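tool=predict chain=A
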Amino acid sequence: MIKNIGITAALIKYNLKAMSSYKKDFIIGIIIVLINTLFSLLFIEVLYNNINTIANWNKYEIILIYAISSINMAVYNIVCGNYRSLKKYIFTGELETMLTKPLNIILHLKIREIDVQPVLDIVVYVALLFFCLNNLNVAVSTPVLIKTLILSALGVMFMSSVMLTSLSFLFYTRYTYTPYDSVIMIAQLAEYPVNIYSGIFKNIMLTVFPVTLMGYLPANTILMKDSIPFNRAVVLIVIIYYFASRIIFKHSLRRYDGIGSW
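tool=predict ok
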């Protein structure tokens, strides 16, 4: 355990030092975040020029969901965003090197590289969050804040589990396919009020596949717009996803036969 902490700290230190040497990338990252945010807000603005509300949620309330969802996705990208690099590591042979290190492979995969852009995302979207709360004249109490943070943490935990499971497909398709990007697109469903979806689909999003933890549920906890009580069984469901994803990934990893056998 102590050895893992030492190796992890060394890798993080190395990555942070590498990031600091690329100031141009840092500036470009800020510009990209601002452009992406601008386009998303323009879409919402155009949408609300034609309608007044979506499922009884007004413009700033929808933007609040979007801000929270984006913050949680940025947290996911800080913690687990490097999952996306697994395919690259397989084809470059880096995965073989990683497997020889005395460090849990999932942890190693997380911290192998660190991207600065999610940190910038958090700064921008937290500012957007406060902007919305100010326009809605909403004050967040401490109990509500704690509940919102717990729901968001469960959302990030759920996303990391689903994404790790999606990577397992690589070992069953000769390293060619993973539904990683498809899951990212599905996660965007959390950026809208759940009441716009049909009953069965809505229940799935709230329980069996609780993607609403990423945006809608934390936002609804703050605004109390919809009378949708939180199902405590979702906590158990997320924990099951978490442990199952690790079992599935490690089992799938056994199919990896190294770059030399291609």
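The chain has one domain: 2-261. The CA atoms of residues 138 and 216 lie 17 Å apart.
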